[in-house]
Amino acid sequence: MRVVIAEDHVLLRDGMTRLLRDNDIDVVAAAGDGDGLVREVLARRPDLAVVDIRLPPTFHDEGLRAALEVRRRVPGTAVLVVSQYVEPTYAEELLADRGGGIGYLLKDRVMHVADFLEAVRRVAAGGTALDPEVVAQLFSRRRQDGPIARLTPREREVLALMAEGRSNAGIAESLVLTVGAVEKHVQNILSKLDLPQSASDHRRVLAVLAYLQQTED
Amino acid sequence: MELIMRTLADPVTYRRLVYLVSALVLGPVWFTALVTVWSLCLGLAITPFVIPAVIVLAYMTRGFAAVEAELARSLLDVDARAPAGGASEPGFWRWLRGLFGGGFWQAQAYLMLRWVAGFPVALILATVLATGVGLLFAPAWMPFVHGGAHLGFWRPHTFVQSLAVVPAGLVVLPVGVLMAKPLAIPFGPIAAGLLNGEPAPVPAPLAGAGARRRPLHAHQSRRALETHAAADAIVVFALVLIWAVTSRGYFWPVWVALPLAAALGIHAWLVLLAGEPAIVRQFRGSRTLAASAGVGAVVAAYFTAIWAISGHGYFWPVWPILAIAIVLAVELAAVMLTSPRRAEMAERIETLETSRAGAVDAQETELRRIERDLHDGAQARLVALGMSLGMAEQKLSEDPQRAGELLAEARVGAEHALRELRDLARGIHPPVLADRGLEAALASLASSTPLRVGLTVEVAPRPAPAVESAAYFVAAEALANAAKHARAQQVEITVVRAGEALELEVRDDGAGGADPRGSGLRGLRRRVEALDGSLTVTSPPGGPTMIRAALPCG
């Protein structure tokens, strides 16, 4: 797997590079700002771009804009945006093109190396990785007496992991359940929330997120 | 025309006028007093009595010059100072010589100029003003003058005829007033040049208009006044002595004592005003008006006393008293016309002082909270994390399993520290507010609360960061209160630009009863007031609660 990193902070850039290289991921370039990222992606055509949201010169959402620019100019490039904070709005913007291969994680997640690498590989393979914090914020919007209240606690856990973009196998591993049990939970959730069956994990994520984002009646 | 109106409305004009007209009284007073004492000195020149006489001369000059310096400072806006007090050099003769240094001769020259130049100018000005006043009030006196008033070519002697003269008064009086400023021009530099005895007691403040008027220290003015009074007392005492020893006939010393008393009275009043701001406040805060009122009263009393001494008869002092009354009335009107603005300014200054103090307080409290949060939170966690790592390092070879546990602990500690820092940063300034502005930040805020939130934001173009931030935190606090205390279900947040202000309104359907003096709302109020805005909270028991903030954002 070939990766381009955009991160202005030298310590974090070097750390991320080392972490990925140690796990046999080929870091082909590292950029210090948004323009640099777009240039490197155009030149090297990586499988994945790992992008910090705050980049020079504005130190606002420069990285997010660069990521969207990358998606526009080189469709199919997977993008993993990392940040010190998460905003559901930014997740919505990233997922807006419905193309897959999108990740949005807190930088903290790097510390759980195995989970982080799993997310990197999932995103590079066209899947989705949404930070649990984003999902939690989306959940907190829902009124406690809505349809979600009809889910069992276990089903809610499964729904949250679905929203993060995990596959049934991933959910099973995370909750220490069998894949069969997870599939059953997923069926129940989809029918309780009146959501369609989806062929791919990515489509399923979009459906779940769309459900979570819709304004309450 | 506009220039004329502006000059007529300008308090400076009237200060100059008062200065010029004051020569009418002060010029003769200085002249008679100084000539008397100088004659005394010359007459006693070959006797030992000359020494007390010259000492009296020196102190009297200083007293007079102190009055003039005070007048020049307040009426001409120049930096004028009375000659310095006696030099502190040892030895009587040196001390005596010192009395005539430090600007003594310049002060003499100035006092004489007030007579030689000031008096004629004052006379002309007073005549023009008196003519103006006379013409203006013609119907009040012309019909009663036997045979009518002599106006050269015409003798109006009926009420109706006298009415025709009034417009002339309307022209002549302003002309007299307008003459004041140009006529006073030469006197400014003269006063500044000749009354320059004492060096500034305090370092000159910053350059600019304000630097030209430096108040004397109160104790210095008081000492000058005491010296003045003592010199006057000695002169009067000496004259009374001479009168007693000689003829004992007509009590002539009164003619020296009276002007000296008048000058001393003016001096005392000015010193009193400088020392007691409370008195100035009685005159609607106008120092000029206060000074004029005192000087006017003394002058009126002076003329009345002269009338009383000189055998009563026709009460002629009514005319100068009338003139003084008119001048004071005009000044009072000018002060009344300007004082609403003055009061407004005072109120505004008070508001600004309070809000600035509030802002400083709020900032201080906030910084202390951040420091405490960092100290108790992230810092402590990082220390614990470092300890876990150190122990893991130590155990690595002998007990790899324990080392692994310690490393996991360290990682959890790092996660906690990061979360705390993130929350802290969000509390200081939410990143999404900086990145995307108020609407996105409020939407994010709305999405993280279980309440139903209706959001209307129309603020384009983006307001200043401080305004955005204040609006955001007002909304955040209101939402938190609505969810926590008021048990509300639905909240409406409206932010619109109304002219020069950003108006924020948060209305909930909760139980109300919010305390505007609670720490959260108080902090918000200080934050809003620091931006010159206002915060109103209406929260009757039973609800609903409505919090409104208006923030200037020109």
What does this structure look like?
The complex is a heterodimer of chains A (217) and B (554). Chain A is α/β, with parallel strands linked by helices and 217 residues long. Helix content of chain A is 52%, strand content 14%. Chain A has two domains: 2-130, Rossmann fold (3-Layer(aba) Sandwich), CATH 3.40.50.2300; 142-213, Winged helix-like DNA-binding domain superfamily/Winged helix DNA-binding domain (Arc Repressor Mutant, subunit A, Orthogonal Bundle). In chain A, helix 2 (34-44) packs parallel to helix 3, helix 6 crosses helix 7 and helix 7 crosses helix 10. The mean pLDDT of chain A is 89. Chain B has three domains: 2-198 and 216-250, no CATH class; 351-428, Up-down Bundle (Single alpha-helices involved in coiled-coils or other helix-helix interfaces), CATH 1.20.5; 435-552, Histidine kinase-like ATPase, C-terminal domain (Heat Shock Protein 90, 2-Layer Sandwich). Chain B has a five-stranded mixed beta sheet. In chain B, helix 18 (465-484) links the parallel strand 1 and strand 2 (490-498). Chain B is elongated, with a radius of gyration of 38 Å. Chains A and B meet through helix 6 of A and helix 15, helix 16 and helix 17 of B.
Low-pLDDT parts of chain A are none
- Contiguous helical run count of chain B: 19
Biggest sheet strand order of chain A reads: 2-1-3-4-5-6
The radius of gyration computed from the alpha-carbon positions of chain B, rounded to a whole number of angstroms, is 38 Å
Give the mean pLDDT of chain B: 81
Question: Concise description?
Answer:
The complex is a heterodimer of chains A (217) and B (554). Chain A is built from ten helices and six strands, in the order E-H-E-H-E-H-E-H-E-H-E-H-H-H-H-H.
